[in-house]
Design brief:
By secondary structure, the chain is an alpha/beta fold.
């Protein structure tokens, strides 16, 4: 009897071991998991490996050591909703009718015919989750669960769109800030101290629950967008005040996600990407980040408005500790992931191109001839062409010479009219201090030609040009 029990115990052990080995083989043969961590209003210099000396970011620094960092990566636009539309669809936001930052109760959102990164990956069998800020339409027809995500916990728009806004009553009249779970409001936020922790816990839980399947985890943190909130475990920890504390907590969140991947045996087959939606909101002074050495910040097409930190980790596929200075934009992310996982691109025209060979270090030439910098409602401000950045006449905002904001109260921008074309070599003049347009008329002429071609396709409100390829956003009846 004893021998029989031992035999079946041994047989059970062998079967379980074989199943584990089989599961491991299947996991390694699956397409890679995708984790996209996307912060809000974070400056280029707000990560250790990008120059921050007063904020500790050990997890992000290690990510860069284990993978690659891009030093000429651009957000799709210098403002919340448009930037998110670009990274999730592979399109210039104005192509699909998404402009600026959507206000609560907007009747617009991503058109249902557009293909998001989540929808593309679901066609490949991916589980999809978003935990954090959406900001691409708060009408039920436009929520994440209608755009390819299986589940969502987070807020529908920016965290300052609530009754505690410093300009509530004088400029704004915001309703309470809702916290959603899928399509249902589960709470009203009156304090955001634990929001980063909540987002992190849901992200880790998503990984734990979906470890047996390929998954896409999108973590768009509401921070460090004002108002700044940080949990007690990071208060006073940085040398840059509350803003630095917030970044340290985001870095902790990155570490928790990486630990969850490691614990579940998914580390080697997961792509982890970290970047931000646009540059720092400089009007908020000590509650804003730093884009140094770049000029200006959020809400402008200058380098500080859209040039962002970008770190990507994919063990065994990307060269460790590599710095890449080839220009890349958020619109290139969707087609790059499509190439990696062998997914079909959207049927409608997109603007991004795969940069996979650039990320692997196999190519040093940009995938795009030029990148175009739009703002407001379809205004073409500038163009990046090789090492050159050209700006067309337009009006932009600056805090230069203005009293800075402090402790959550914004300062006041002044508006500047750029009256003539300006040209900068951003490889040797990243702060854009020396206009060389007169010295390089052929470069100016070439970029103007490229711009005219793009205007014919996507339009330009500054020149009154109608584009032939723009598409309407999703629109519902006014609430």
């Amino acid at each position: 009897m004893r021998n029989t029990i031992l035999f079946f115990a041994f047989l059970f052990f062998v079967v379980c071991k074989a199943q584990q080995q089989n599961l491991g083989t299947k996991a390694s043969e699956r397409p890679p998991n995708i984790v996209l961590i996307f912060t809000d209003d974070q400056g280029y210099r707000d990560v250790g490996v990008f120059g921050a000396q007063d904020i500790a970011t050990p997890n992000l620094d290690q990510m860069a050591a284990d993978g690659i960092k891009l030093t000429s990566y651009y957000a799709a636009q210098a403002v919340c909703s448009a930037s998110r539309a670009g990274i999730l669809t592979g399109c210039y936001p104005n192509r699909i009718g998404i402009h600026s930052a959507m206000m609560p109760n907007s009747n617009k959102g991503i058109h249902p015919d557009e293909t998001t990164l989540a929808e593309m990956l679901k066609q490949k069998g991916y589980r999809t989750g978003i935990f954090g800020k959406w900001h691409l339409g708060d009408h039920p027809d436009f929520l994440p669960t209608k755009n390819g995500f299986d589940e969502w916990v987070g807020i529908p728009y920016s965290n300052d769109m609530w009754p505690l806004h410093p300009q509530q009553g004088s400029v704004f009249d915001f309703d309470p800030l809702p916290l959603f779970k899928n399509e249902k409001v589960i709470d009203t936020l009156t304090n955001q101290t634990h929001l980063t922790t909540l987002i992190t816990e849901h992200s880790v839980d998503f990984i734990d629950r979906n470890k047996a399947h390929p998954f896409f985890l999108y973590v768009p943190h509401p921070q460090p967008h004002v108002p700044l909130f940080v949990s007690d475990k990071f208060k006073g920890k940085s040398d840059r005040g509350r803003y630095g504390d917030v970044i340290m907590e985001i870095d902790w969140s990155v570490g928790e996600i990486l630990n969850a991947l490691r614990k579940n045996g998914l580390e080697e087959n997961t792509i982890v990407i970290f970047t931000s939606d646009n540059g720092p909101w400089l009007a908020y002074g000590n509650h804003a980040g730093s884009a140094l050495p770049f000029r200006e910040g959020k809400g402008t097409a200058w380098e500080g408005g859209q040039r962002e930190p970008f770190i990507m980790r994919y063990p065994g596929q990307l060269p460790e500790g590599t710095v890449i200075d080839v220009p890349v934009m958020a619109i290139d992310l969707l087609p790059t992931i499509a190439e990696i996982v062998d997914a079909e691109l959207p049927q409608k025209i997109i603007d991004g191109k795969s940069v996979w060979s650039i990320l692997k270090g196999q190519q040093r030439k940009s995938a795009q001839e030029a990148y175009f910098f739009y703002y407001r409602v379809n205004e073409l401000f500038g163009v990046r062409y090789g090492k050159w950045k050209l700006y067309f006449p337009h009006t932009y905002r600056t805090m230069d010479g203005q009293a800075p904001g402090k402790d959550g109260i914004p300062g006041k921008y002044k508006m500047i009219d750029l009256s003539e074309i300006e040209l900068y070599d951003v490889t040797i003049d990243p702060s854009e201090t020396t206009n060389v347009a007169k010295e390089y008329p052929k470069i100016v002429a070439k970029i103007k030609t490229l711009a005219d071609t793009m205007r014919s396709r996507l339009g330009d409100s500054l020149t009154g040009t109608e584009g032939s390829e723009t598409r309407a956003p999703g629109i519902v009846a006014e609430k």
